[in-house]
Amino acid sequence: MAAKNQGEQGMGQVSRWLAVLAMMAAIAPSRVRAENWPGWRGPRGDGTSLETNVPTTWSAVDNIVWKTPIPGAGHSSPIVWEDRVFLTTAIPAAKDRVLLCLDRKTGRTLWQKTVINAPLESKQPENSYASSTPATDGEKVYVTFLEKNTVVVAAYDLAGEQKWISRPGRYDSPHGFCHSPVLWDDKVLLACCGNSLGFVAALSRADGKTVWCVESKKPVMSFCVPFVKEMAGRTQMIVPGNSVVTSYDPQDGKELWSADGPSKEYVPSPIYLAKADAVLVASSWPARILMAVKPDGQGNVTASKVVWKTKDGAPYVPSPVAAGDYVFTASWEPKSLVCYDAATGNTLWKQEGVGTHHASPVTANGLVYFINDDGVTTVLKPGPKFELAAKNPIGEKTYAPPAISQGQIFLRTFSTLFCIGAPK
């Protein structure tokens, strides 16, 4: 009888362990997919999220965890690290450029710091005085603003104490300032291509000192954020600007390759197309052109490494996003969502009647999320035909791409930060 009881107890322990393992297996995928959103366009800098439990439907009142009024004005995106949300804003009446930290669970402001107080720069009406999205490595938060003709970069710890402030170069543009920092290795990377002043640089994360700096030889305005990725066996920093697309080694600023054009000025940020094994860039003015370039070249690769090029549906402001075999844009003229074959650049479909888009699209749940200026999010299934999954109005205007983290969407409008999804 004792042996039988011991056997039953042993089998019970095995069953309990199997149940625990099964529960861990069920939980593990969601934990693996849960991500921070640490900078412009997320953890990979391309608008993609690996999460699969992100909301697909909401309204101004439905599926809203919290909403917090944001002082001042700005078009920068929120970023998220664990239980904190960071956001920049400007208070024009006081000439303050500000960094905010919010509690992700409640939306309560934990601290607010004025980074600089300086005269307001010239800008066009669609820009703001706080358009650059911050970046964080979980230890510091890095922000960029413009002080007259000088670029200011500052680092704060998570408690809101300024650790350093740096002024690495000069910049000018009648359209204003929008140059988000990118973190790589132990560096803060910047590309500030202005009208007659500009530079590409790397600063030390530790103290803000300049590690390397390349001044623009023929400055032409560009507002796109650098894209950093290991491609063709080397880490590359892709910078469209000054009428050329340039690949730099982010370690020392050495030029790896360049491709002319496809036009003069740029706003959308580059992405990588796995199906074409190519970097996709988009010019904005005077011509809107999409161009895919193989990243394995050396020197000027205009004649040898351009995979495809198209004007059809090319965006003006929003960056493209890739989803498997497809790449998507929000076209300016005509106002439409456009889907291309990522390998060839062939247009597969266009959907008009979607409004004007400044915000760049993102992906999650195997879906693509487009947010138009009126705050309406069109959710679609990627494929060779347009397939609508949901349409969600928030009731407020926005130019900022959302952040996605731990099953929640953080959407900044002109006056409010929304947390969409289940409470954490």
Average residue pLDDT:
93
Report the strand count. 34
Give a short account of the largest sheet: 5 strands, mixed
Distance between the termini: 49 Å
Helix residue percentage:
under 10%
Find the CATH topology: Methylamine Dehydrogenase, Chain H
CATH homologous superfamily name?
A: YVTN repeat-like/Quinoprotein amine dehydrogenase
Structure report:
The structure is a single chain. This protein is mainly β and 424 residues long. The protein contains one helix and 34 strands. The chain has a single domain, classed as YVTN repeat-like/Quinoprotein amine dehydrogenase (Methylamine Dehydrogenase, Chain H, 7 Propeller), CATH 2.130.10.10. It has a five-stranded mixed beta sheet, with no helix packed on it. The termini are far apart.
List the helices and strands and how they pair.
Layout: H1 2-33, E1 64-69, E2 79-81, E3 84-91, E4 96-103, E5 109-117, E6 135-136, E7 140-147, E8 150-157, E9 162-170, E10 182-184, E11 187-193, E12 198-204, E13 210-215, E14 227-231, E15 234-241, E16 244-248, E17 255-260, E18 265-266, E19 271-273, E20 278-285, E21 289-293, E22 299-300, E23 306-310, E24 321-323, E25 326-331, E26 336-341, E27 347-352, E28 362-364, E29 367-371, E30 376-380, E31 388-393, E32 403-405, E33 408-412, E34 416-420
Parallel strand pairs: 17-22
Antiparallel strand pairs: 1-34, 2-3, 3-4, 4-5, 6-7, 7-8, 8-9, 10-11, 11-12, 12-13, 14-15, 15-16, 16-17, 18-20, 19-20, 20-21, 21-23, 24-25, 25-26, 26-27, 28-29, 29-30, 30-31, 32-33, 33-34
